[in-house]
């Protein structure tokens, strides 16, 4: 971007110089194309960054959901383990009760066998039997309650299994979605890298062409500067030559007028009086006035100022 800005400044300089020289040239089109391409690339990069941010947020939310479900699964597994322990304990109790039942049945058999031989002890045995019957009824009720609880726990176990299966399916689906999003991300990154490489190559080629054009324009500008400098010097020199010629012509006219006014005899008399030759007297008469010398100095200083102004303009941008 810095190189682009430098190139734009140089192109502006070129336009300014071309306008001052009276040459109207169109600005090169590649810079506009490069600006458009750079803007499009920036828009594409912003869109890609937004999509990446959205996908990262979705991945984070999915990870959080997976963690919550894993925690729920651990809790359910702990509950299932507790239920299995309770069921095992109740099974042990049922086996103990069955053993007690078997013992009681054996006792009943023995009592029935001893009824015939022990009629005196019938009342006591009948009371014992009634008590045992009551205990048996209570045990049966307990058995019924245990069977009901067992059925309920079995139903809970089946429900928990179904929920676990459903959650496993959801987890598999989420994992597949995460894999698909990662694949899409990699594809987008590869496509973006390829496009960026191609655009970088195009920009490099365009910059090379612009640099060549700028070198040519700088050479032409330097030639124009040298031309202007030499032209200004030649103009000053020619003006000075013309001024000297004009002064000489003015002097010759004055001398002719003086010679026409003065005769040769008067000139000789003046030379004899002054003890000077006629040529020296002519040189004395040729002396310029102070006003003319001041004017010549002012004109010479103005020419110098003009040259300095042209040099400043050429040195400036």
UniProtKB/TrEMBL annotation:
InterPro entries in alphabetical order: CNTLN
One cellular component term from this protein's GO annotations in UniProt: centriole
Domain of life: Eukaryota
BP term (GO), one: centriole-centriole cohesion
Region Disordered, annotated ranges: 1-34
Bias (Basic and acidic residues) ranges: 1-17
PANTHER family for the chain: CENTLEIN
The protein's name: CNTLN protein
Organism for this UniProt entry: Mionectes macconnelli
Recorded name of the encoding gene: Cntln_0
């Amino acid at each position: 971007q810095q190189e682009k800005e430098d190139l734009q400044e140089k192109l502006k300089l070129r336009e300014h110089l071309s306008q001052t020289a009276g040459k109207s040239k169109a600005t090169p089109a590649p810079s506009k194309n490069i600006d458009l391409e750079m803007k499009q690339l920036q828009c594409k990069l912003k869109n890609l960054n937004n999509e990446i941010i959205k996908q990262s947020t979705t991945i984070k939310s999915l990870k959080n959901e997976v963690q919550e479900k894993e925690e729920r699964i651990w809790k359910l597994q702990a509950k299932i383990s507790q239920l299995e322990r309770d069921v095992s304990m109740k099974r042990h109790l049922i086996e103990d009760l069955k053993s007690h039942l078997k013992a009681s049945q054996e006792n009943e058999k023995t009592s029935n066998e001893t009824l015939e031989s022990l009629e005196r002890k019938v009342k006591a045995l009948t009371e014992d039997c009634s008590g045992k019957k009551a205990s048996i009824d209570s045990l049966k009720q307990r058995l019924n309650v245990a069977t009901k609880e067992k059925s309920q726990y079995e139903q809970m176990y089946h429900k928990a299994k179904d929920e676990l299966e459903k959650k496993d399916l959801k987890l598999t689906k989420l994992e597949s979605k995460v894999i698909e999003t990662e694949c899409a991300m990699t594809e987008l990154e590869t496509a973006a890298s390829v496009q960026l490489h191609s655009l970088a190559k195009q920009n490099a080629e365009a910059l090379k062409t612009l640099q060549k054009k700028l070198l040519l324009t700088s050479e032409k500008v330097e030639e124009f500067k040298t031309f202007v400098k030499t032209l200004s010097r030649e103009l000053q020199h020619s003006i000075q030559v013309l001024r000297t010629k004009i002064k000489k012509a003015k002097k010759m006219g004055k001398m002719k007028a003086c010679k026409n006014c003065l005769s040769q005899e008067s000139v000789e008399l003046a030379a004899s009086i002054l003890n000077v030759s006629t040529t020296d007297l002519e040189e004395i008469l040729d002396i310029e006035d102070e006003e003319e010398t001041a004017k010549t100095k002012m004109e010479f200083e103005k020419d110098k100022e003009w040259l300095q102004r042209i040099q400043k303009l050429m040195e400036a941008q």
